[in-house]
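Sharing a chain and its predicted structure for anyone who wants a worked example. Both blocks are below, sequence first, tokens second.
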Amino acid sequence: MRRNEIERLLPSVFRRTVGDKTPLAALLEVMEHLHRPSEQVLTRLDSFFDPRRAPDAFVPFLASWVDLERIFEQPAHILARSAQSAGGGQTTGSAASPLSTGMGRLRELTASAAYLASWRGTKYGLLRYLEIATGHTEFEIDENVADAEGLKRPFHMRIRAPETLLAHRALLIRIIEEEKPAYVTYSLDFLPGTAKL
């Protein structure tokens, strides 16, 4: 709020005493200054609820709203605390990503969360989840895995990921554990020679 807008809210007895160099004028200036950060946030409030435009520090919070915290390396409240301590008690403009693949991938997962939830527990849903979380499309899922004797292993799947994602193995395992059908076992292999898109 501007100083003159705040002044209009005062009782008439106070408004009559407002002058250029009075303590009340100084107080009104301070009040205008204190409102400024809140007003700046309110002018772009819609961006806080869009994972593609939200500030980095707010994205893990949005992701926790759509149940993505279950694949984080650390819970969102721990990330928020570390972001605050790094910024001297205030939330910083950029936060560490709770995913090893980066903040951009977390933004895309958050934006796609409703769609992915409708496919949860299916081969297609797991494949899309892995692709969005990593930015790679070279995943293969084999649901007809044979054992050493050539017999089909019931309720087992083999997931093949690009070798370039070896550093993100822990993330892939968390995603697979959460998105595969509960009764299915799996193996995760890395294919050599696949390149990132």
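Comments welcome. The longest strand covers residues 156-162.
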